Fold each of these.
Amino acid sequence: MAKVLIADDSEIMRKSLTVILTEAGHTVAAEAVNGLQACMEFEKSRPDLVIMDVDMPFFSGLDALRTIMKRNPMTNVVMLSSQSCSSVICETINAGAKALVIKPFYVQELMGAVNHALQYECDLKQASIDNIYRTIEGF
């Protein structure tokens, strides 16, 4: 299973994600409370997957995503956000995230995104954006 870096400013969210991922057989290699720490932990732990909140203090998750993708464009990243506006969706996918999960989420949604990110190495940006738009239109 995958070695994961979790980056979220909420301790409760980090603990919840750790429980979910551990129960699914993954290993949490590192945690970060902001985007800058996420970039540093990424360099140290070299995870297979990064799960990161878009909105974090000091250095946003989106800024960290861009930095991480510049260093290693093949990184598997799942972004989390409480915002479902199209600009956030487009920015995260265009910056290289494999998926965006809107908070609050069901465990199945998160694990679907995790499995998608780990399974597909090809460029799925447009397909991901189209799928997200279909999901939002259903609300």
Note: Residues 121-126 have pLDDT under 50 and may be disordered.
Amino acid sequence: MRCVVYHGVGGPEVVAIEERPDPVPGRFEVAIEPAYAGVNPADVLQREGKHPVPAGTPKDVPGLEVGGRVVACGEGVTAFAEGDRAFGLVSGGGLAGRVIAHERELFAVPDALDDQAAAAAPEAFLTAFDAICLQAGLGSGDTLLVNGASGGVGTAAVQIAVHLGARVVANVRSEELRPRVAELGATALQADEAFAHVQEEGGADVVLELVGAPHMAGNVASLARGGRIIVVGAKPGDEATIVLRDLMSRRGRLMGTTLRTRPLEEKARLVQEFGRRIVPAMAAGKVRPIVDRAFPLDEAVAALDYVRAPGKFGKVLLDLADRGG
């Protein structure tokens, strides 16, 4: 297989495309050959030595998700067979022509999703669903504020919330992208306008923070009584100052979360709950993964630079069609 490899820690100079032997699935694992691979900011942080790799995970091949066709199954696998399409989470090794995943961290790809959508869905939609629904408890009739709503997780969160009957206010820095986010069902505004609009409407029940420290004061000021702020994205070293009594007076909660380092059982429960509540909406075309751009595998360095750049609408992918035999 061909795959992205990091030779040590650093910048673009440590990135290479190499041929590696095809990995073999363990007892409860499957081998998947994806047509595309999702690129995430965490892949860049891993390259820079700022995102620890869990034990037992390939340390030099990045990638946190997979979507494609099953080509081999371990002897204990019962949920999938060769030829099935599957997508889900991996702890590493996702930017490759063959990816190993545990069957309990996967679910079947709906026929409505093509290969690009299958690759773009797992990390973005599972992160958004876990954060706003399972942790922050978003429900029908609630108001959700999404800061950084035009990226992969942001567009997923907007669609999930709208599907569940919530009102969504989207903070979108790019004026050009605001109409596209609005088409997903959100009120899309720039930061100051978004905070003001939420406050006029009585406050946000949930705030999804995908940018980091710059928004924290506005987030607290925009909370409804009993509101929850959940931080999913921030720059390394980000620090924020908030007025604690403002948080207290709103009986607010401030939470942070990541997916990669969670135990198998936790991720398996998340995947199964997502499969029950959101995958049927994908199958019906009510929510859809959005792809900003797909780079050829040989342009992985450019893709990793691009995933950090502002102004994206949806996910960044690598096209693995030339992955070889």
Note: Residues 2-121+262-319 form a domain with the Quinone Oxidoreductase; Chain A, domain 1 fold (CATH 3.90.180.10).
Amino acid sequence: MEDLLRYFEKLTEIQTEQFAKLDKLYNDWNLKINVISRKDIDELYIRHIIHSLGIAKVQVLKPGSLILDIGTGGGFPGIPLAILFPESNFYLADSMGKKIKVVQEVVDALGLKNVKSEHIRAEKVKGEFDFIVSRAVTQMDDFVKWTRKKIAKKNNHELKNGILYLKGGDLTEELQNFPKAVVFDLSNYFEEDFFETKKVVHIPLKYKP
């Protein structure tokens, strides 16, 4: 929590309490279902919560925003973002039912009213969203195919509607089909070694009815 509070100083008392509860919630659930790898659970705040909030360093989400988290797994990046932006609305989707069960239990325990979770494949999700977020669930070509018809027409943010994707390593080859992609290095925002190769990729996508 100390690292989180260092990077996000303006949390309300409710947000601070919600973030603090995540440690026990995920540790308890990890004993029942392996939601987070054993080596990562001790680094929950750096490797999952702060990493997820890297998206917030790139784009502050406005009230009323609609955000889709594809392949949310145990709720990342969706749950940390939903805590940070309580006036935005989040739809967390994953094709694995047991992980969505954990997500819903965590959402309920935190009292998050701005989150909907569903056991559903990405291609089946209905609706239009300002941004579609994810953490390295697949190659970008496939991810864009899944999501290109889920983008809202009206832009309300500094960044154009589209994808905000958390990924690491050299993305040159993977992004060669996306000339409008912009890569933000998380090492510019967070000082831990973990973030040296971590990035947020923004790909603007046009509305397609």
Note: The chain has a mean pLDDT of 95.
Amino acid sequence: MGGTHRAGAALLLSMVLLAILPASALGQAGVNFQNVAAFVDFGKSVTFQAVVTSDTPVLEAVLTIKPQGVDPFLVPVSLDEIGAIVYTLDTQQTPLRAFTPVEYTYQLRLANGSNVTSPTYTFDYIDTRFAWLTLDSEAFEVNWYDREIAFGQLVMNTAVAGLDAVTNLLPVQQKQTIRIYVYNNAADLKAALSLKQSWVAGQSSPDLGVILLPIPDGDEARLELERKLPHELMHVMLFQLIGSKYINLPVWLVEGLASMAELYPNAEYTSVLNQTAAEDKLLPMESLCSHFPSDASGAFLAYAESASFVRYLHTTYGSSALRWLAEQYQNGLGCSEGLETALGSSLTQLEYRWKQNELRIDPESLIFRNLLPYLLIFGLLFGAAAAAIIISGRGTRRANAALTED
């Protein structure tokens, strides 16, 4: 049923475009665009082709390519003797994000001085290495390969449950269909994303409404889905709430909310937090405002801390307060300033309370640890001053003794 709706919407969009496009795009000056197409060889190239018929000679042709979410770029193209255009974009030199919708148009300059612009054409930069199977609804489009339809239904059911978990945690309404692509292993996904790091749990492109997941076949598939899919759904829904200001959100808030949404939470977070807290090696929350460590162990600790910290905020202030907090960063507030505006406390104050209430770190110990650097500096200064006084006193006594002898 979702496919029928999309087909109807595409037809309606085409009719609207025909109604609003300038006459020059629809054959003015005897110009027509035929056999227009774009062929994707994923990870390698996109080949654009068209045939232009014109009563007036074409002096110049330019192809404008606009992937969603980035600035358009223009490339000159040539027509052969029959008016055919064939241009190949090297996507290794000019990378495109996987599953990005791309718009493109042709602009012509004619010998009589007029300019002609073609209609706007579109294609999706799909991963063509696999024969994707699709199951869709109004809220989700689920895509997978080399597995039975029962797996696709499992993904759909998990997406529905995950969306419930997300909206219970952060009140937000879905604004667009979310596309989910499930790879059979991490290697296939890494190749699609051109990633270099050795680990990847999944990725979302919130502005595209696209989620990519590696879910190996086997007994753990359901648990992996219940952990990874709601996590990435939170990213997408946060973008639908905040829009382009999504990038202003503290990373600990984004990843903390995403980790909390997981239907099957990571059981190792608690033990890692307890051990790291006991060793006094927790990462300062301020260091997690703009980025996470790039190494796997550091990133894991950052995720664990963020999940625990945001859970504390949720328990203390509630879901509505978390939404209010997220909305503060639309105005360009800094990491701590957003917290002070929304919750009335600074990041330092909330971090202290979190460690005391969630991690059960002794308050006196916290105070001592926080004051220890200053105590060391004071001790060094005091010791240096005391030593100087002692040395000076000894010198004075010796001078006095010498005068007495004289």
Note: Residues 1-27 have pLDDT under 50 and may be disordered.
